[in-house]
Amino acid sequence: MVETPHQREVRIRYRSRPDIKKRISENMKKRYHKNMADPIKRKHISEKMKQYRKDNPEYFKRKRDEWYYKNHDFKLKYNKERAKKLTFDVFSYYCNGNPKCVCCGEVDIRFLTIDHINGGGNEHRRSLSHKGFSGVNFYAWLKRNKYPKGFQVLCYNCNCGKVRNNNICPHKTVL
Ligand SMILES: [Zn+2]
Ligand SMILES: [Zn+2]
d(Cα 56, Cα 139) in Å, to the nearest integer? Predict the structure, then answer.
């Protein structure tokens, strides 16, 4: 039986109705799961899929790329959130709950950093990894090692001042 152009048009219009579309996709899903439960049919499906992948490499490459970009954004966002939480946790620990610079009292977390009380921060960080640990990786290290002693929270200002002034923040020395 050959479809006339009119029949074809009617069929396509019918199948593109939202409710019909939904029902068809549900039925297809049901049939797929039923077939996958049968080992013989399952093997047949997987072989067909393999062949289909071989025959349409561009299509699958595009799908893979789309998936990658979609999840890449998601992953970046997730990592950012995780880094924020980790930073907050580490600062909170060393400040007994309320992150602030122990020298000048700066509370804006964007200004804060972890300071090695006795200096030698760069050497210590380098000894942890050949590339040197920075920021989040260093905070992760602190948390993993159950917050070792010898660290405090300082703002960048006090931290840099301390490095330039023999390990004492210039706020603490009288000119
Ligand atoms: Zn400070
Ligand atoms: Zn200071």
Answer: 46
Q: And the tokens for 137? A: 């990786």
Nearest ligand, measured from the Cα of 106: 1
Ligand 2 centroid vs 157 CA: distance in angstroms?
A: 7
Tell me the β-bridge partners of 115. 152
User: Nearest ligand, CA of residue 101?
Assistant: 1
Instruction: Give residue 61's Cα distance to chain centre.
Output: 23
Q: Are 36 and 45 in contact (CB under 8 A)?
A: yes
Domain ranges of the chain: 73-172
> pLDDT by residue (tens digit) across 75-117?
888 889 999 999 999 999 999 999 999 999 999 999 999 999 9
Per the CB < 8 A criterion, the answer to whether 125 and 138 are in contact is yes
Whole-number Å distance between alpha carbons of 61 and 143? 40
Does the predicted TM-score (pTM) go above 0.85? Answer: no
Q: Which residues of 33-49 are buried (b: 16+ CB within 10 A; e: fewer)?
A: eeeeeeeeeeeeeeeee
Three-state DSSP class for residue 98: coil
